[in-house]
Amino acid sequence: MGLLDGKVALITGGARGMGAAHVRLFLAEGARVVFGDVRDEEGKALAEETGAAYVRHDVRDPAAWEQAVGTATALHGQLDVLVNNAGILRYGRIADMPPEDFDLILGVNLKGAWLGIRSVIEPMRAAGGGSIVNISSIEGLIGAEGLSAYAASKFGLRGVTKSAARELARLGIRVNSVHPGAINTPMVQDPDLAREVDAAAFVKAMVIKRFAEPVEVSHVVAFLASDRSSYCTGSEFTVDGGLLTGAGY
């Protein structure tokens, strides 16, 4: 038996990186999966490979949320799990970052997740409950130079998570956040970030001295999506190789 047998999950930002790892693991654990992204070519290829359903989904758009949720319920009759995984990162010091970049990052990373929570309340209520997993970051727990907008979005997602957990518990809906550290995904290969961050010093600050593979985060997400985490809500789960156990980086 799979950890997620009988569950229907909607995963955002699922075309590559951590999102694609979530899609694959959820399917392996027995879930029926609909995933969204704006990367149509990669999304369609993953759907063809795995059998999951792909929808084009800009998480900033309430109408796109309505379509994505509607696709999940039309295909599978219910919705039990939302993984708010979609996110973008732009490196830039405060003095140099255009305000429109700040707005874009908060629109995708924070407002997009808030819209997602709002959009799944009714179908999860109809299903008798559910689990929402918000993918934050260690940057939602500490700040980092050049990542003010990203950190603001991820700190904000922590607050949304805790408020939603309080609001939705009465409906049987649990809401938790996951805070990955150094994960080997395309997003962390941003050239501006690579030029500015001392990778050797970053790894030195870790207890487990390596970058994680995306599926190592997916296993935590799957646990939170499952009934095995039935007493977990409003909580923060770090997957950071022990980076935050000491003085940071």
Topology:
Layout: E1 8-11, H1 17-28, E2 32-37, H2 40-50, E3 53-56, H3 62-76, E4 81-84, H4 99-127, E5 130-135, H5 148-168, E6 173-180, H6 191-196, H7 199-204, H8 214-225, E7 236-239
Helix pairs in contact: 1-8, 3-4, 4-5
Architecture overview:
The protein has helices at 17-28, 40-50, 62-76, 99-127, 148-168, 191-196, 199-204, 214-225, and strands at 8-11, 32-37, 53-56, 81-84, 130-135, 173-180, 236-239. The longest helix has 29 residues, at 99-127. With 249 residues, it is an alpha/beta fold. It has one domain (8-242): Rossmann fold. Helix 1 packs across helix 8, helix 3 (62-76) runs parallel beside helix 4 (99-127) and helix 4 (99-127) runs parallel beside helix 5 (148-168). It has a seven-stranded parallel beta sheet with strand order 3-2-1-4-5-6-7, sandwiched between helices. The mean pLDDT is 93. Pfam families: adh_short_C2. InterPro entries: KR_dom, NAD(P)-bd_dom_sf, Sc_DH/Rdtase_CS, SDR_fam.
Features:
single chain; about 250 residues; alpha/beta; Rossmann fold; 7-stranded parallel β-sheet; 7 strands; about 15% strand; globular; KR_dom; Sc_DH/Rdtase_CS; oxidoreductase; NAD(P)-bd_dom_sf
